[in-house]
Amino acid sequence: MAMGVTSGAAGSGDIWQVTLALAAVVLAILALAWLLKRLQRGVISGSAHLKVVASLPVGPRERVLLVDVAGTQVLLGVTAQQITALHRFGGQVVAPETRGAADFATRLRQAIGAGGAP
């Protein structure tokens, strides 16, 4: 009984097919990752009704956030494991447009009593 004898080495055509298939899979994975990243960025940055007004770190991985949600401000406690609504304000506590050094300078002038424009 003679059994078919095949050579141990694969032909060069088989190696090229495997290489091209592997390259196609890697390119498909990279293209999907790029597409997913582009889609997620548009969804997150597209929200005009949700703004983080203020943030205060209270620990290495914990912080308190004041978030403006369509005109209503909510105080949130954020940890690595969960987000908890601490308080919902009836009106605006802090205006979402005022931030940073300009806000601090205005408040300092008001506290000193100058109150005028620079």
Q: What share of residues are in beta strands?
A: 15-25%
How many helices does DSSP assign?
2
Strands of the widest sheet, in order across it, are 1-2-3-4
Distance between the termini: 103 Å
What fraction, in percent, of the residue positions are helical? 25-40%
H and E order: HEEEEH
* Regions with little confidence, pLDDT below 50 for 5+ residues: 42-46
Task: Tell how many strands the DSSP assignment holds.
Answer: 4
Basic shape: elongated
**Could you say which structural class the secondary elements and strand pairing correspond to?**
alpha+beta
The mean pLDDT is 75
Radius of gyration: 29 Å
Largest sheet geometry? 4 strands, antiparallel
Task: Please give a handful of descriptors for the protein shown.
four-stranded antiparallel β-sheet, 118 residues, 2 helices, 4 strands, alpha+beta
Description:
Among the domains are: 14-43; 47-92. Helix content is 40%, strand content 24%. The chain is built from 2 helices and 4 strands; from the N terminus they run H-E-E-E-E-H. Strands 1-2-3-4 form a 4-stranded antiparallel β-sheet, with no helix packed on it. The radius of gyration is 29 Å and the shape is elongated. The N and C termini lie far apart (103 Å). Mean pLDDT is 75; it is low at 42-46.
